[in-house]
Amino acid sequence: MERKAVYAGSFDPVTNGHLNIIERAAKMYDELTVAIVVNPNKPGFFTVDERAEIMSQVTSHISNVRVDTFSGLLADYVNANGFIAYVRGLRATTDFENELQMAQMNARLFKNNTETVFLMTDPKYSFISSSLIKEVASLGGSVDGLVPDYVAFRIKEQALMPGIDILHRRTQI
Ligand code: COA
Asked: I want to staple 29 with a disulfide (CB 3.0 to 4.6 A). Which of 5, 25, 123, 132 is the partner?
């Protein structure tokens, strides 16, 4: 039986921290789905379609990664797709409490014994978040080494568009 896992998030945009988790998780399972959540409560800089396109580009070198999008309850998506593991990255102790809460809630909701599996984020990336990357890159600061080159290019391109407010652009879902 194929061992399939999922790594979910907003990925607005994907960073090298995420990519590091994806590369490591892809080695652990036959197939890793990177699932981009459509979250109406979290304003997006890139649309979900743009994020999926960017994610496909930057993971094209990993043959067993597929990119998908979903909305609604993560557990419904997991149960419908037969994933044996839900992968999460832990950056610092500050992530822990929230992750514990989500993992315990998801454990009640997951069917088929799906496990939440935590990978420790590479310390090189433990201080970054997608919001911080967007802010620094759009204001001309260097994010070299923190995101794939293609992501840095897409942020700068987007931020130069007239009328774009880097932190408050709403995604057209
Ligand atoms: N490297 C770099 N940055 C990282 C990272 C890593 N390894 N891991 C997390 N981050 C960043 C993310 O980019 C994000 O930054 P942002 O807030 O600036 O966008 C931040 O840390 C939080 O990441 P995460 O906790 O993964 O949030 P998310 O919004 O990306 O994803 C879901 C949240 C999808 C996991 C969660 O909202 C969900 O499950 N939603 C579906 C609804 C549901 O089922 N809810 C009940 C859950 S019990």
From this structure: 5
pLDDT given at position 7:
98
Closest of 123, 48, 125, 119 to residue 86, by C-alpha: 119
The stretches in the chain having pLDDT less than 50 are 170-173
The ligand 1 atom at the shortest distance from the C-alpha of residue 76 is 44
- Class of residue 98 by CB neighbours under 10 A (exposed 0-12, middle 13-18, buried 19+): exposed
pLDDT of residue 94: 87
Can you give the pLDDT at residue 63? 98
CB within 6 Å of ligand 1 — which residues? 8-10, 12, 15, 17-18, 21, 37, 42, 73-74, 89, 91, 102, 105-106, 121, 125, 128-131
Average pLDDT, the chain: 92
Half-sphere exposure of 13 (CA within 13 A, CB side): 34
Our answer to whether residue 42 is catalytic in this structure is: yes
Please identify which of the residues 88, 130, 134, 169 carries the catalytic annotation. Answer: 130
Domains of the chain: 4-159 (3.40.50.620)
Under DSSP, the state recorded for 46 is S
Choose one of 54, 74, 100 to mutate for the ligand 1 pocket test, by most ligand atoms within 8 angstroms of C-beta: 74
